[in-house]
Specification:
Oligomer: single chain
Structural class: alpha/beta
Number of helices: 12
Low-confidence stretches: none
Number of strands: 14
Mean pLDDT: 93
Strand order of the largest sheet: 2-1-3-12-11-4-5-10-8-9
Strand content: 15-25%
Helix content: 25-40%
Largest sheet: 10 strands, mixed
Shape: globular
Order of helices and strands: HEHEHHEHEEEEHEHEHEHEEHHEEH
Length: 379
């Protein structure tokens, strides 16, 4: 981004970035508050500014304004440089028609409106938290760090025709899996760029032995790979990938997948990592150049209404989402890395919220604010 480049070169003293803050429902406001505190600390330390525009979304917006995504909320997002999203939904709104419920009425329209085609979900299991994973500790000794890059706006979720024909005696449901080469190319570039900045290994997922989509996917990814000679490319059929990621998650760096396969595999990796309360997510639109994107950043977990208002929620996923925002939308790599290092240091020292607390010697159980305090201290 031009403003950030000028700041790093000394030509601008105090760049300001606009962030639309949509805390949402359940534990959303509580964990968002901790992310805001971390961003304020970063701003103070780095000499930059964040202009936060807080708006209602999800169930809270339905209750107040009759819509999960009010016009004012969408307008705030359009005026922002990035969106920091909390969590939406809960039993209170499950009786509404599906299209009006918080998830479908807010999150999906935001993805569509802004063309957020690339979903990045890091599955990180810290060395000190391997016991929380359902996978045997000897398999993941030392932890692991896998980035799942999922195509988010194409494939079987959006392909046409899509309908259920109930007229006959034997109803028929039709979902169509459609991908254009251009859609595959742009998500492949995101994945290769990410791999080039990490371990330089990319595993592409398809079903080329059965699906025509898979053939075009593999062909296109191999073509894009020529632009990234430093990245080692391999392929896995999705059924084999589901097994191998459990068998040896440490053997993977970046995983690239179509929409349906990425949805399934990223959730699998989240479970292997041990706690949804630790995992961030970024949904990115078209590149602004220089590897920077407009994006929506959110925790991978849900609104957890049963835990809301008790001060016990784990804010780490929301805080790490804020770190991803700094990296991918603002180009603030140093600041993003400092947040991630602070989180890792706190976990290594044994600080735990209830979802990752086991009572082991040397660990300390804290609440939402206590975890935020510990991370701020490391910054």
């Amino acid at each position: 981004m031009e403003a950030m480049a000028a700041f790093r070169d000394g030509a601008m003293s105090h760049p300001t970035f606009k962030i639309a803050v949509l805390a949402g429902d359940g534990i959303g406001p509580e964990v968002m508050s901790e992310a805001r505190r971390v961003l304020d600390k970063i701003a103070s330390r780095a000499g930059i500014g964040f202009e936060f525009d807080e708006k209602l979304v999800g169930g809270a917006a339905i209750d107040a304004e009759g819509s999960a995504l009010p016009d004012a909320t969408l307008e705030a997002c359009e005026a922002a440089d990035a969106i920091l999203f909390g969590s939406v939904g809960g039993p209170k709104w499950e009786s509404l028609p599906p299209a009006e419920q918080p998830e479908r009425g807010a999150l999906l329209p935001l993805r569509k409106h802004f063309g957020l085609y690339a979903n990045l979900r890091p599955a990180v299991c810290f060395a000190s938290l391997t016991h929380a994973s359902p996978v045997k500790e000897e398999i993941i000794e030392g932890g692991f760090d896998v980035l799942c890059v999922r195509e988010l706006t194409g494939g079987i979720y959006f392909g046409e025709p899509k309908h259920i024909d109930r007229d006959g005696v034997d109803p028929v449901a039709v979902d169509t899996m459609v991908y254009k080469r251009s859609e595959i190319e742009r998500i492949a570039h995101v994945a290769f760029t990410a791999a080039a900045g990490r371990g330089k290994r990319l595993t592409s997922i398809d079903k080329a032995n059965v699906l025509q989509n898979g053939l075009l996917w593999r062909e296109t990814v191999e073509s894009v790979a020529k632009d990234y000679p430093e990245v080692q490319l391999s392929h896995l059929y999705v059924d084999n990938a589901a097994m191998q990621l459990i068998r040896n998650p440490k053997g993977y760096d970046v995983v690239l997948a179509p929409n349906l396969f990425g949805d399934i595999l990223s959730d699998e990796m989240a479970m292997i990592a041990g706690s949804l309360g630790m995992l961030a997510s970024a949904s990115l639109g078209e590149s602004k150049g220089g590897g920077h994107y407009f994006g929506l950043y959110e925790p991978s977990g849900g609104s957890a209404p049963d835990s809301a208002g008790q001060g016990i929620a784990n804010p780490i996923a929301q805080i790490l989402s804020a770190a991803m925002l700094l990296r991918y939308s603002f180009g603030l790599e140093q600041e993003a890395a400092s947040i991630e290092s602070a989180v890792r240091a706190v976990i290594d020292e044994g600080v735990r919220t209830g979802d990752i607390f086991t009572g082991a010697a040397g660990t300390q159980k804290v609440g939402t604010t206590g975890m935020g305090d510990a991370i701020l201290a490391k910054l």
